[in-house]
Amino acid sequence: MHSFMNDYSEGAHPRILDLLNKYNLEKNGGYGLDDHSDIAKKYIKRELGRDDVDIHFIAAGTLTNVLTISAFLKPYQAVISADSGHINVHETGAVETSGHKVISVPTIDGKLRPDHIIKVLNYHQDEHMVQPKMVYISNTTELGTVYTKEELKAISKCSRENNLILFMDGARLGSALTCKSNDLSLEDIAGLVDVFYIGGTKNGALLGEALVLIRDDLKEDFRYLIKNRGALMAKGFVLGIQFEALFQDSLYFDLAEHANIMACDLTKIISDKDYKFFIKPYSNQLFPIFPNAILEKMKDEFVFSIHEKIDEDNTAIRLVTSWATKEESVDAFRSFLERY
Ligand SMILES: Cc1ncc(COP(=O)(O)O)c(C=O)c1O
């Protein structure tokens, strides 16, 4: 079986495991106060081209989302998200459990735009409704689309003009930054959003996300909050070492680029056979539409997920490539489609 199920099925890139092994018997400081976390932060700051940010390593994406959103909102404040946003549909109400409403907005491509935000603001006018205070975007989005610099600038301007905190969920930021259409750098992102994270879990790390706090007023007491939510790991150095490996050179970008190249190859194979996509492919998540009869056969050789039923005979599926996807899996997909 070849799996295109997701980008977190495999363990970790060997260079990360090597570094973990190298430092295995070293005595490290606890709770993220260790040399490796410091080195990793230094490397990430180098990529961001600035030193005036706070970085915290958190174990998982949902945890990072809940921590971040609940940290900066007052009890009556809410976060605006695309309806497809991870916090809205795939986190089991975790944000709402923290007391904050997610105001979801229908979008065609998973991307929020200023007019979506303005519409929400116009609707929420007084204290009888929650007060929108944060904008949540994900890059790549849950539909594999990516924000252009112009789009991010527009959202940033709108957020600043309306005194909203702009938060970018970067669980798949590696794939966004290395896809063909991308024109954003980490430096640009740090200049345009208030807080964002760089996902490791879906890009070659065993686990971990690097949360970057940019605005000074968001930085205060954040370690207290992490601990208060049970997310300050005694062995925080395990996260630090992984981000040290990912950012000491270009490994983070190389791994994401590999996933994107595999996705581009799959896209070509699928398009050459004249199959259509539910949404235009940009990154390592693809949503091709196939006849159900072919999908029945596909299930015997490939692991993938169903995205949406299109009509009685056709279904959109989700194929995800990863840092570890082998060319032979892509070749197997080519030969499968040649047979049907
Ligand atoms: C955009 C996005 N954000 C957050 C998460 C949550 O990550 P985790 O499963 O580590 O909690 C995911 C997971 O797929 C995701 O796709």
Could you characterize what this model shows?
The protein is of the alpha/beta class and 340 residues long. The protein has 2 domains: 2-7 and 252-339, Aspartate Aminotransferase, domain 1; 14-248, 3-Layer(aba) Sandwich (Aspartate Aminotransferase, domain 2). Helices cover 41% and strands 17% of the residues. The chain is built from 14 helices and 13 strands. The chain has helices spanning 14-22, 35-48, 61-72, 86-89, 94-97, 114-123, 149-161, 173-177, 186-192, 222-228, 237-247, 251-272, 292-301, 327-339; strands at residues 2-3, 54-58, 77-82, 102-105, 131-138, 165-169, 195-199, 209-213, 285-286, 289-291, 302-303, 305-309, 314-320. A 7-stranded mixed beta sheet has the order 2-8-7-6-5-3-4, with helices on both faces. Strands 9, 10, 12 and 13 form a 4-stranded antiparallel beta sheet that branches. A hairpin with a 4-residue loop joins strand 12 (305-309) and strand 13 (314-320). The model has no long low-confidence stretch (mean pLDDT 97). Pyridoxal-5'-phosphate binds next to helix 3.
Secondary-structure blueprint:
Elements: E1 2-3, H1 14-22, H2 35-48, E2 54-58, H3 61-72, E3 77-82, H4 86-89, H5 94-97, E4 102-105, H6 114-123, E5 131-138, H7 149-161, E6 165-169, H8 173-177, H9 186-192, E7 195-199, E8 209-213, H10 222-228, H11 237-247, H12 251-272, E9 285-286, E10 289-291, H13 292-301, E11 302-303, E12 305-309, E13 314-320, H14 327-339
Parallel strand pairs: 1-11, 3-4, 3-5, 5-6, 6-7
Antiparallel strand pairs: 2-8, 7-8, 9-13, 10-13, 12-13
Helix pairs in contact: 1-11, 2-11, 12-14
Bound molecules: pyridoxal-5'-phosphate.
